[in-house]
Write a structure and sequence with these properties.
The protein is α+β, with helices and mostly antiparallel strands and 391 residues long. It is built from ten helices and 18 strands. The strands form four sheets. Strands 2-3-4-5-9-8 form a six-stranded antiparallel sheet. The protein has a five-stranded antiparallel sheet with strand order 1-11-10-6-7. A hairpin with a 3-residue loop joins β4 and β5. α1 runs antiparallel to α2 and α7 packs across α9.
Length: 391
């Protein structure tokens, strides 16, 4: 294992008028830290396409994570998929990106638009080996990974995006490559890159797509640890141990909560200085500064907003334009956790704040614990390595 990290993100838009997407992305990580990413595109659109693509993605990702061959996967799919009554075939195209030990990438492609590789800031050609599995032509590639490599996989709803009632043959894969090349240098996360591509497709479709469109991006980057301290320990005598463990960890440090910040300031022997960055429109309490701490924020109210942004990030990612540039505590935490961090360590105090036990207030101990659990789970879904320690 090296210090590289595979940041994985995707987004889909549905065929206009359909409630289910005919594309499906599945991501499975094995016990050794390798990841299998599958983008499947079911025949047609709607319910049938959704079933075809979901089964295909689930079968392939699970089997490959268990070490089975591509041939075994394809044969299993052919036997397992239901046959489409209108076309007489069980049909779902697929793209596989298998990240092995964050050292190599195995690309396996069947009938989807070819994966775009951006390396050293430019679209880069890569070798492909053709192989036959039954009557299917499959292309396979093995590459050694480099920092800042960007892999862009997509369904065919992306390159043919058009506002007219037909496919747009002017928005070619090479044009998508040039578009992604231009934005890949901005340091955006994989999720944001996929969102920007699919949003552009939606614009070209005039928000009425005639096909499902999905983009899945894998961005290779250096690991970036992040540490977040939330709440004082249940036992005051544990404060020194909690602070020592927290500040000894590599990476940036975020402290959430007024009491927690006071304990951290005392332990560091540094003053806490309040900042005047309160925006009444956002209702997020102001931040503070402590020398030796990268970010100091209020606790539950701020983290509740972070949780709301995290849930949106995993779905439509429509709030990105809010937290990506604002300077309030919640937005700053989002940028640090969602965009910068790869490995996140939570240090959570179990002390009960007497001020939060008023039944007329929406804040209580259980809310704080639920926030931690929910946010940790959301971050894991983003592909982050998360560890939670309670005190």
């Amino acid at each position: 294992m090296n210090d590289l990290f595979a940041d994985i993100g995707w987004k889909s838009i549905n065929h206009y008028g359909e409630q289910l997407c005919g594309d499906h992305v599945d991501i499975v990580e094995d016990e050794y830290g390798s990841s299998v990413v599958v983008l499947a595109d079911g025949l047609g659109s709607g319910v049938k396409a959704s079933i075809l693509s979901t089964l295909t993605a689930k079968i392939i990702s699970t089997m490959m994570a268990e070490g089975l061959s591509v041939e075994d996967c394809v044969e299993t799919i052919a036997a397992a998929l239901p046959v489409d009554s209108a076309h007489g075939v069980a049909y779902s195209t697929f793209t596989i990106i298998h990240i092995i030990g964050n050292r190599t990438a195995e690309l396996i492609q069947y009938d989807n638009p070819q994966i775009i590789l951006i390396r050293d800031g430019a679209v880069t050609e890569y070798p492909k080996t053709q192989m036959m599995v039954g009557d299917k032509v499959i292309y396979k590639t093995v590459l050694y990974l480099q920092e800042d490599d960007v892999f862009v996989a997509m369904s065919d709803g992306c390159p043919y995006a058009n506002s007219e009632p037909g496919y747009n043959f002017n928005w070619k894969p090479e044009d998508i490559g040039a578009y992604m090349e231009s934005i890949s240098l901005g340091g955006f996360t994989a999720k944001t890159l996929a969102t920007m591509l699919v949003d552009e497709c939606g614009r070209l479709y005039a928000d009425k797509p005639i096909d499902d469109a999905t983009a899945c991006v894998v961005r290779i980057r250096r690991r970036e640890p992040m540490n977040i301290l939330f709440g004082p320990p249940a036992d005051r005598d544990d404060s020194d141990r909690m602070m020592s463990l927290f500040f000894s960890r590599e990476g940036k440090h975020i402290v959430c909560g007024g009491t927690t910040a006071s304990i951290a300031a005392d332990w560091l022997h540094k003053p806490m200085i309040a900042k005047s960055d309160y925006d009444p429109a956002d209702k997020i309490p102001p931040t503070a500064e402590i020398e030796g701490v990268d970010l100091v924020t209020e606790g539950v109210i701020t983290m509740t907003r972070v949780m709301e942004y995290a849930e949106d990030y995993l779905a439509a990612n429509s709030s990105y334009e809010q937290w990506s540039y604002k300077r309030d505590g919640a937005s700053l935490i989002c940028r640090m956790l969602f965009e910068e961090a790869t490995d996140i360590n939570f240090y959570v105090g179990r002390a009960v704040n007497p001020a939060h036990q008023d039944p007329d207030l929406p804040i209580n101990f259980h809310v704080k614990m639920s926030l931690v659990e929910g946010l940790a789970d959301a971050l894991r879904q983003m592909g982050k390595k998360v560890k939670v320690s309670y005190f």
